C-alpha cells in the first residue's frame, strides 16, 4: 500500500536568478522525507542549467514541450498526488525557512487540513506580514482580512483540486480548498521569504483588478453588491498593504 507522501511542487519559467536559492531552501529543510517536483515551462534563459546543477534523488524534473502557463504547469505536479498526500507549493523566486515543512507537516499530521504561515515580504525593504487571526474562513479570505502567501500553503490533497487557467489562479485555487475544508489554519511564524518581482503580469494593477473582479463575480454568482463590497476590500486592503510594505 502506498504511503501518503509529502509533495512539493515548483513551477519554473525564466527563473535563472532565483531558482537555485529556492531549491537550496528545500534541501535545507529540517524535515527530510519529501519529494520535490520541478516543472519547467519552456524557459529561455539559464533556468535548466541551474536546476540540473543540483543532484538529489528526492527531486523529479518535468520539462513542458510547450509553454503552458503556471496553472497547467502546476496541475502536472498535482497529477502525481493521491488523496491524503500533503501538498506544498513554492514559487521559484521564494525562499523557505528551514523549519517550514517540519512545523506544517506536524500540524497536518495533527488534524489540520490546510495551513499557511506568516511570511517575510521582500520589496524595497523586508517586512514580516503578520496577523492576529488563528484561522481564515471563506469570507475573511475573499475580503482580504489576511493576504496569504501562496508559497506558505500546505494542505491535505483531494482529487477535486485543480488549477484553472484564469488570472489570479492562486486565489481561485484557494477558494476550491476552502470550499472543501471551510477554513485555513495560520501558523504565527514567518516561514517564507516572498520576493516581489517587478514586471510580472500580476504586478500590473489594472490587469490584476480586472482578473479579480471577474473572479469575484463568479464566486458571488453574479451578486453585484457582494462582488462590489469584496472588490472595495481588495482595493482598500491592497492600498494599505502597499503603503506599509513599499
What does this molecule look like?
This protein is 36% helix and 23% strand. It has 246 residues and is α/β, with parallel strands linked by helices. Strands 1, 2, 3, 4, 5, 6, 7, 8, 9 and 10 form a ten-stranded mixed β-sheet that branches. Strand 6 (114-122) and strand 7 (126-129) form a beta hairpin. Helix 7 packs antiparallel against helix 8. The longest helix has 21 residues, at 224-244.
Strand proportion, as a percent range, falls in 15-25%
Distance between the termini: 50 Å
- Find the count of extended strands (DSSP E, 2+ residues): 10
Gyration radius over CA: 17 Å
Structural class: alpha/beta
Order of helices and strands: EHEHEHEEHEEEHEHEHH
| Unreliable stretches | none
Outline, from the CA principal axes?
globular
The overall average pLDDT, rounded, is 93
Estimate percent helicity: 25-40%
Amino acid at each position: 500500500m502506498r504511503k501518503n507522501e509529502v509533495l512539493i511542487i515548483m513551477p519554473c519559467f525564466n527563473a535563472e536568478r532565483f531558482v537555485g536559492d529556492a531549491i537550496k531552501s528545500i534541501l535545507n529543510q529540517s524535515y527530510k522525507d519529501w519529494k520535490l517536483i520541478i516543472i519547467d515551462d519552456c524557459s529561455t534563459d539559464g533556468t535548466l542549467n541551474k536546476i540540473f546543477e543540483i543532484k538529489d534523488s528526492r527531486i523529479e524534473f518535468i520539462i513542458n514541450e510547450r509553454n503552458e502557463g503556471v496553472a497547467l504547469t502546476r496541475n502536472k505536479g498535482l497529477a502525481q498526488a493521491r488523496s491524503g498526500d500533503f501538498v506544498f507549493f513554492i514559487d521559484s523566486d521564494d525562499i523557505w525557512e528551514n523549519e517550514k515543512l517540519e512545523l506544517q507537516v506536524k500540524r497536518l499530521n495533527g488534524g489540520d487540513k490546510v495551513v499557511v504561515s506568516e511570511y517575510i515580504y521582500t520589496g524595497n525593504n523586508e517586512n514580516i506580514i503578520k496577523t492576529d487571526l488563528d484561522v481564515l474562513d471563506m469570507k475573511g479570505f475573499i475580503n482580504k482580512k489576511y493576504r496569504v502567501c501562496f508559497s506558505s500553503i500546505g494542505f491535505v490533497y483531494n482529487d477535486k483540486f485543480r488549477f484553472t487557467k484564469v488570472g489570479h489562479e492562486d486565489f481561485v485555487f484557494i477558494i476550491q480548498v476552502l470550499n472543501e475544508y471551510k477554513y485555513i489554519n495560520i501558523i504565527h511564524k514567518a516561514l517564507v521569504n516572498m520576493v516581489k518581482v517587478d514586471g510580472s503580469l500580476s504586478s500590473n494593477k489594472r490587469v490584476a483588478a480586472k482578473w479579480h473582479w471577474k473572479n469575484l463575480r463568479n464566486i458571488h454568482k453574479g451578486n453585484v453588491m457582494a462582488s462590489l463590497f469584496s472588490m472595495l476590500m481588495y482595493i482598500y486592503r491592497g492600498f494599505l498593504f502597499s503603503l506599509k510594505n513599499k
